[in-house]
Structures are given as structure tokens and as C-alpha cells.
Amino acid sequence: MPNTVILALGNPLRGDDGVGAAVLEQLGRSALPKTVALLDGGTVGLALVLLLNPYQHAIIIDAAAMGEPPGTWRRFSLAEVCLQAHDMALRGTLHYAGLAEALLLGEALNMLPPQITIFGIQPAVTTWEIGLSNAVQAAVPSVCTAILELLNYGENTCH
Amino acid sequence: MNREISVNVHHLTRVEGHGNIVVDVRNGELKTCELQIVETPRFFEAMLRGRAYLESSHITSRICGICAVGHATASLRATEKALGVTPSPQTVALRKLNFHGEILDSHVLHVYMLVAPDFLGVGSVIPLARTAPNVVLRALRMKKLAGDLCKVISGRHTHPISMTVGGFTSFPKMGDLEELHQRLIAVRSDVDATVELYRTLPLPQFERDTEFVALHKPDEYCFIDGVIKSSDGYEYPIEAYRDITNETIVPHSSAKHTRHKRESYMVGALARFNVNYAQLHPRAKQAAALLGIQPKISKPYYNSAAQVVEIVHCVEDAIQLVEQLLTQGVRYEPPAAPTRFSGEGVGAADVPRGTLFHNYVIEDGKVVGANCIIPTGQNLANIEADMRALVPTLLARTQAEITHALEMLVRAYDPCISCSTHLLDVRFEG
Hints:
Strand order of the largest sheet of chain B: 8-7-6-9
Largest sheet of chain B: 4 strands, mixed
Largest interface: A-B, 19 and 26 residues
Strand order of the largest sheet of chain A: 2-1-3-5-4
Oligomer: heterodimer
CATH architecture of chain B: Orthogonal Bundle
CATH class of chain B: Mainly Alpha
Helix content of chain B: 40-55%
Largest sheet of chain A: 5 strands, mixed
Number of helices of chain A: 4
CATH superfamily of chain B: Cytochrome-c3 Hydrogenase, chain B
Order of helices and strands of chain B: EEEHHHHHHEEHHEEEHEHHHEEEHHH
CATH architecture of chain A: 3-Layer(aba) Sandwich
CATH topology of chain A: Rossmann fold
Distance between the termini of chain B: 53 Å
Helix content of chain A: 25-40%
Shape of chain B: globular
């Protein structure tokens, strides 16, 4: 039974928002431990809480607006990053619930896996088109390598 | 009362899409009372022109990420009627089951995530998760089952992939149906808890008589096909939908308004409940009794209660449909073939928010004309009529309370604003 899930989020029809799916596809061709499950969450919304719940460790890959040059990626733990969760009381629509809202809900329900690692990749384009920009495509192998190192050596790998 | 009130809610929350509420009271007299729809039209009807008939359901299911099965179903029925296609009894049963999944998914989202926070004293579902985690977990569980049901029947949660003109391109496995059956039986306790929750919520008693319109069949609680029936006693074949909808353009809305014989009419769960109460499953009727509602009920805030009744009905009917499929077995069937490649057809489905019409003209297998009339568009005039009746009763309250009451009213209709904005038909004559 897998205890770690690698979850891709994002919509491949929105340009670089498909980076999670691209990383997942490349990881699928690698030799992974049997304890690791791969999952494409797409644009799952709040049900993310239920998807993550069975696992001890969740590695989430998503495009992230970090104000960095396109293709730059970073690894964070949940505690390390102040996610820009939209104020749902004000903005309120659940039809656009994303990772930040789902993690907030999971936290409120006390249902999140003990360990969550987020790989955020800065997109160049998120308009309606299929395929990654060159800068983001070029980042895919190094994100995969970092995830494999994380799986093999744990959190102490330095990035 | 010489009261001056100016309510201006820019981008109403906890509804799908963008709409504004504008109310202006001067010297105690209501001057302006509008639900402004500010989204841009989406041109789906124009997109269909020139496309092959097999593509229509896949394109139009993208009108909505919530009622994608509803759009696909109405679309398929329009195409099938245009091309003389008769789906098999198995196809009809699978489509009904899939439809129940979507009604459940949408209603659970609305009654738990969008409406309940108003009554449980929280601003959204996230603080609700802290104060009442069991309520939120129940909603997530029920939504997951609804989504999984759609996935088993039509290949994925949203935007059904295996529904096609004349039938299905793949079929559920017996093991999946057996698992679905067990989960549907098990969810009954969550359904009962939903009814219990809504028994305790103080839904506003505001009442305004109006006309209710829904699809109707004599022998089942109708979601697909049937006739158009109104609580005022009118009945039309689906092909005569324009006699009900009479679309008009209003200056403050990029979605058209509709009216029948009165100034407005209502579609959706409350309309279906009023028109089709006799066809509800007995357990759904019990739930209605527990919630204290019976037809004809003209309290718009009770649309959410009618949705709870439909949750009960859809779970019970889904159980019966799955049992029927398990008993008879699901056979591989090639889709029923068209008997012609040119013609016109109107498909109708009563989707979560009300009656949806798709009307296509097809020539030599290609769509040459399309018209889609969406439930929220039909409800806009009725929402405004409610607002005009409600505001004068609220003048003693604070502006914040008035605003909240109006927001809750609009939200009760579960409006899907992105869906309802569509192309204005401009013709130049000369």
C-alpha cells in the first residue's frame, strides 16, 4: 500500500499550468518505489482533501506565481510558505477553489498528511494553449530529479 | 418611511460567475432593483456552426463545469431528434443514472458549501470546517460519491466522454456497479443527516406567488425529455419551448430574460418539486414532510430545501437504476445510428438549476444553427421580481442586513451566471 503520493495539479489546456502533468508523465517512466503512487489531480478543487488523506507524505506539483523568471522552481513545506489563499468569505466562490483553499480546508478539518512538500514552478504563459513554454519545459527534468532525490534521501537534500 | 437605501454588491459571492446586485431606495420608494449580469457572452452557439453533429455534445458540455452531463444530455437529445435516432432502454437507464450523479454533485455543493454557511453563522465553508467538521466531511463524502458515479457511467467526473449520439462508447463493469450500489446504500445515513440539518436551518419565510415551470412525465420524476409543464396549468411539447421562454434583452444584463404569461417564472428544484411532487420517491416525500414543505410552495429561499428533497430522490432512484442494471446485466451495444443526416431537433433536460433547452438545425451532418436556453437566464426576471417584493419588507433593517438578505435570495436560486450569458442575436435589415 503506497504511503506517499505524488500529485500533479493544473490544466494542460492552459499552457504552463500543465507542468505538473508533464512532471508526472516523466516520473511515470522512472523506477519508483512501490510505496509511491502517482496521481493527476487536474483541477480537482476541494476534493483534494480526500485525495491526500490516505497518505503520510504528499508531494504536490503545481504552477505557482512566485514573481520569479519563468521555469524557476522551488520546494516548500506547508509551514514554510504563506500561501496566498483567497479570502473565501469575501471572494467566496468555490467554483474556483484551488490548492491554497483546499489545503486551508484540509487544515481546518485536520485531515492533511503529516508531511506535505510542494514543488512550485513559475509559469511563463497560462493562456488557452496546449504545451509548455521552453523555459518551463526545460525545468521539468530537474524537478523530476529533485523529486526522485527527495524520495530516495528524504527531506535533507538541499535545493 | 422616508428611508434612503443604496445596496451595491459588486461581484456577489458564493455563486458561480459574476453578477452585481443594485438596489436604490429614495424617500422610501424603490427606484432601482437589478441583478446585473456583467459577464461577457461566450458564443457557444456560434462555435457549433459548421461542426460535425457528433461533436456538439462534447463542445456544449464545456458550457458548464457543474452541469456538463446536463448539457451533454440535452445536446444529445437535440441531435437525436434532428437525425431520427432512438436510444435503447439501456442507454436511457444509463443516462438517467449519470444525470442523478450530477444532480447530487451540484445540489450537495449548493446546500452545504454555498447556502449552509449563511445559516451556521460563518462566512464560508473553511471556518465551517473548524466549527462543524462532520458537516463538511459529510458534504465531501457525498460529492465524491456523486463524482465517482459519473465516472463509472460516462468515463469521468466532469465532461462525460463516453456519452455519444445514440448511446455510449464504453460501459460500466459489473464490479464497479456493485461497488456503487454498496456506496449508495451506505450514503443513506448521510442523506438522512442532510434532511436533519435542513430541518434546523431557519430558511426565510419570504413568499411571492409566481409561475413554476419544469419538464414533466406522468410516470417518473422527470429530468430528461417529457413535456414542459407549468404550475399555472399550461403544457407544451418541448419543441414549443419558445412559447414559454420568449427571450428578451434587458439593458443591465448580458444574459437574456424570459417570461411566459406573467412577468416572470421560476425553474429549478423548487419548480420541479411543485410541478412533479406526485412522481417523487416515497422517501423523498417523507423528507419533504420532515422539512415542512408541500406543493405549491412559493418561498424562493426554500429552493435549497427542494434540493435536499431531490438529493433523497436521486439517491433512491439511483439505487433502483443500479439494481436494475445489475439484474439485467449491461450489454455492449453499438450506438443507435441516425436515420437521416439533416433535420431540426430540440432536446430538453431539467438540470440542477432548471430546464435547459438545446435546439439544433443540422444539414448533411453539420450543425448550421444552434440555440441554447439555460436555466439561470430563465430565473433572472423572477429573481428581480422577488427582490422588488422583498426590499419594501426590509426597510426597517440595517443596510448590511438588507444586503445579506438579497445576497441569500440570489444564492438560493443557485445561479450559474457564466452559463447564462450568451450571444445576443443582432440582425441588420436593409
